[in-house]
Amino acid sequence: MAWFRKRSDLPQDPSTDEEPDYIEQVAEQELVAEPEPEPEPEQEERLEEEVPARELDAGPILVVNQVERFFPVGNEQLHVLKGIQMEVQPGQLVMLRGRSGSGKTTLLNILGGLDQPSSGEVYFRGNPFHTWDDDKRTLARRMDIGFIFQAFALMPLLSAWENVELSLRMANVPKAQWKSRVEHCLELVGLAKRMHHRPFELSGGEQQRVAIAKAIAHRPRLLLADEPTAELDSQMGAQVMAVFKNIIRTEQVSICMTTHDPTILEVADHVYEMVDGKFV
Ligand SMILES: Nc1ncnc2c1ncn2[C@@H]1O[C@H](COP(=O)(O)OP(=O)(O)OP(=O)(O)O)[C@@H](O)[C@H]1O
C-alpha cells in the first residue's frame, strides 16, 4: 500500500540540545507555518551563533510495546498489527522487512505519529506518543521527524535547491540560514553539482537523494522511509543506502525504513522481519 501522507516538518532548533517539551510548545507555537516568515530579532541573533554538534539521545529514540492495530472493514475488524515490540536506538539504521500486506506501512505510520495504535504504547524520545492528540504529534513530527517516500515526493517545477529550500521555508527556519543549510544537505547527498537541476533532469537515484536532503534539512532526530529504494535499480539503491549511513554519522539521526529488498539488509544495524502483522 502506498504511503502517501506527506508532511512538512519544522526544524529542530539548532541552538539547543535539550529535550523538547512538546506539550508546552504546542501551547506556545502556531502550528501552521507561514509561507515566508520574517525572522524575529532574537532569531537573527541566533543566526550568528555557531551551530553546535548535536549529541545523540541518551535513551532510545523509539520504544514500541505490544502495539495492536485493527481497521474496521465492513462489520469486521481487520487485525493488522499483532503485538509489535521494537526499539530504535540513537544512530541506528533499522529495517522492517516483510511481504506486501504484512503491515510494514501501518507500523511506520504509527511510528511517525501519522496514525495511532488501537492498543499498546509508542514512546518517541521518551514521550508517550500513543497518548498524544493530533496537534502534539504534529508538532513533534514537524520538529523531529523526517519522511521519505518511495515515489520521491518532490515538487516537479522546482530545482533540487528550491525543493530543499521549500522545506526550510515551510518549517519557519530563519531565511538567513537557508543558503548554508540547503548547500550542506545537497552536498551531503552528493548533489553539489546538480543543485539547480529540476527533478525531470535528474535520475531516480538523484531524485531520491534530493528527497533525503529535503527530509533532513530541518535536522530531525528520526527519519522514516517507506521503501526508499523500491523504484531504483540496485546501483542507485546502494547509493541511497550509502547516503543513509553517511547522514546517520554526520547528522546524528536514526533511520527506520521498510524494504522488500534482501540485498540491502546487510547495511542495517537491526532487521525486524514481519509476517502477517507480527515480528518473527
Ligand atoms: N486504513 C486501512 N483500512 C483498512 N485496511 C487497511 C488500512 N490500512 C492498511 N490496511 C490493510 O492492512 C494490511 C497491511 O497493509 P500495509 O500497507 O501496512 O502493508 P505493507 O506491508 O506495507 O504492504 P506493502 O509492502 O504492499 O506496502 C493490508 O491488508 C491492508 O489492506
Bound molecules: adenosine-5'-triphosphate
How does the major sheet shape up? 6 strands, mixed
Low-confidence runs: 1-19, 21-52
Q: What series of H and E elements makes up the topology?
A: HHEEEHEEHEHHHEHEEE
Strand order of the largest sheet: 6-7-8-3-9-10
Summed up, the helix count is 8
Distance between the termini: 21 Å
Q: Just name the CATH architecture.
A: 3-Layer(aba) Sandwich
Q: What is the share of helical residues?
A: 25-40%
What percent of residues are in strands? 15-25%
CATH class: Alpha Beta
Structural class by secondary-structure content: alpha/beta
**Shape, per Cα inertia axes:** globular
Would you identify the CATH H-level superfamily? P-loop containing nucleotide triphosphate hydrolases
Total tally of structural domains: 1
CATH topology call? Rossmann fold
> Could you give the count of β-strands?
10
What does this structure look like?
This protein is α/β, with parallel strands linked by helices. The chain has one domain: Rossmann fold (3-Layer(aba) Sandwich), CATH 3.40.50.300. It contains 8 helices and 10 strands. It has helices spanning 22-28, 41-47, 104-111, 134-144, 160-170, 175-188, 204-216, 234-251, and strands spanning 62-73, 76-88, 93-98, 119-124, 127-128, 145-148, 222-226, 254-259, 270-275, 278-279. The strands form 2 sheets. Strands 6-7-8-3-9-10 form a 6-stranded mixed sheet, with helices on both faces. Strands 2-1-4-5 form a 4-stranded antiparallel sheet, covered by helices on one side. A hairpin with a 2-residue loop joins strand 9 (270-275) and strand 10 (278-279). Helix 5 runs parallel beside helix 7, helix 6 (175-188) packs across helix 7 and helix 7 runs parallel beside helix 8 (234-251). The longest helix is centred in the C-terminal third of the chain and has 18 residues, at 234-251. The chain starts with 21 loop residues before the first helix and ends with a strand. The model is unreliable at 1-19 and 21-52 (pLDDT under 50). The structure holds adenosine-5'-triphosphate (ATP). It comes from Paenibacillus selenitireducens. Residues 1-52 are annotated as: Disordered.
